[in-house]
Amino acid sequence: xxxxxxxxxxxxxxxxxxxxxxxxxxxxxxxxxxxxxxxxxxxxxxxxxxxxxxxxxxxxxxxxxxxxxxxxxxxxxxxxxxxxxxxxxxxxxxxxxxxxxxxxxxxxxxxxxxxxxxxxxxxxxxxxxxxxxxxxxxxxxxxxxxxxxxxxxxxxxxxxxxxxxxxxxxxxxxxxxxxxxxxxxxxxxxxxxxxxxxxxxxxxxxxxxxxxxxxxxxxxxxxxxxxxxxxxxxxxxxxxxxxxxxxxxxxxxxxxxxxxxxxxxxxxxxxxxxxxxxxxxxxxxxxxxxxxxxxxxxxxxxxxxxxxxxxxxxxxxxxxxxxxxxxxxxxxxxxxxxxxxxxxxxxxxxxxxxxxxxxxxxxxxxxxxxxxxxxxxxxxxxxxxxxxxxxxxxxxxxxxxxxxxxxxxxxxxxxxxxxxx
Length: 421
Ligand code: AMP
Known about the structure:
This protein is an alpha+beta fold. It folds into two domains: 14-171 and 227-316, 2-Layer Sandwich (BirA Bifunctional Protein, domain 2), CATH 3.30.930.10; 329-420, Rossmann fold, CATH 3.40.50.800. It is 39% helix and 21% strand. It has 15 helices and 16 strands. It has helices at residues 14-34, 47-54, 59-63, 83-92, 137-153, 172-184, 192-200, 211-217, 229-244, 289-292, 307-316, 336-351, 365-374, 385-390, 408-419, and strands at 37-38, 44-46, 66-69, 75-78, 102-111, 123-132, 159-165, 250-251, 263-271, 279-285, 300-306, 329-333, 356-358, 379-383, 392-397, 403-407. An eight-stranded mixed β-sheet has the order 1-5-6-11-10-9-7-8. A five-stranded mixed β-sheet has the order 13-12-14-15-16, with helices on both faces. α1 packs antiparallel against α5 (137-153), α2 crosses α4 (83-92) and α5 runs parallel beside α9 (229-244). The protein is elongated, with a radius of gyration of 28 Å. The two termini are 50 Å apart. The site of adenosine monophosphate has 17 residues, from β6, β10, β11 and α11. Adenosine monophosphate (AMP) binds at residues 81, 112, 114, 119-121, 124, 126, 279-282, 304-306, 308-309.
């Protein structure tokens, strides 16, 4: 127990942190180019926010939240996603105050009591963007472009973009009825989950993963045939803008989001080689959510992507950078007096932004050189009693094993010169 992490969580160890940084840096660069600003919200919120912001009938809320009472008896939930928190922060901090579009992004841990498997964890990381305050489909196209640019820039191939429109509270009830009429006499052939979705949330039957439900749903009426004029126009404009900027997509009328505050655009990027976990990025418009959370009606669109899934996809396509070795100088000191001297040099170099390490032990020269090799240092600087007396240090090039003796008074200057060559 004490030496293992809870199921569904994992340590991100020093040998993989560079991969996370690589991904996060690409994300931050891209968000800056697109004018999205970073926001960091608390890892836990009042449970009520997620009941409202995600919806009480969703799997996430019904089965997957980490909810507990704190010591004052308040119901607290570890965030299972970040959109509701961003909307809360937007309202609480009046980020809408200047009346323009507000473009935010986040990177952080999310928590879901999911069944752990490859690419599915209980603590996972999402990067997401939210654009609040604008209903123009050009913003939907912008958000999709940002996602597409990220995946392209990472070098991922075999990525598929699917888009759909889920209508709005005006046209969706008509579709809902059509859908119920279609499924009514097939109810007994659907899975248990879909049977309970039939009344509460029939659109969700369309994205059930059960192969038999999928087969039946294939002939269901299409929402795109039931859109009101406004939603149909919005959807056709979106397609036009995506085409204008050269983004390929396919129309998928089965791509849905079941809750009322989801409106118009829904989209998903799939990386098919990931199999069951092929959904790497999903998003859409949620024009009803800000109002649901207590604000004025505010159109909004965004997406979220799982960083573990992206990293998994990058790994399978061998697109991750190798870990860089950045140790320039390694000091090998023999005896306490030498150690004191090299410790002073070590700090002098670090203050000049040279990456330097030393062995603090009184181990043999051989053992300290082994340590130096392990750090893949470019140079080892060796100091023993003889060198101390002569006031020189031995500088060994670890690549070609060439050694030279450098007088103390020019050593730091020489080392800085060598590492910057
Ligand atoms: P969602 O918030 O459910 O729309 O998920 C958005 C993205 O988060 C998905 O496309 C996945 O990439 C990722 N994701 C969702 N759940 C998990 C999980 N349990 N483990 C890892 N990644 C996840």
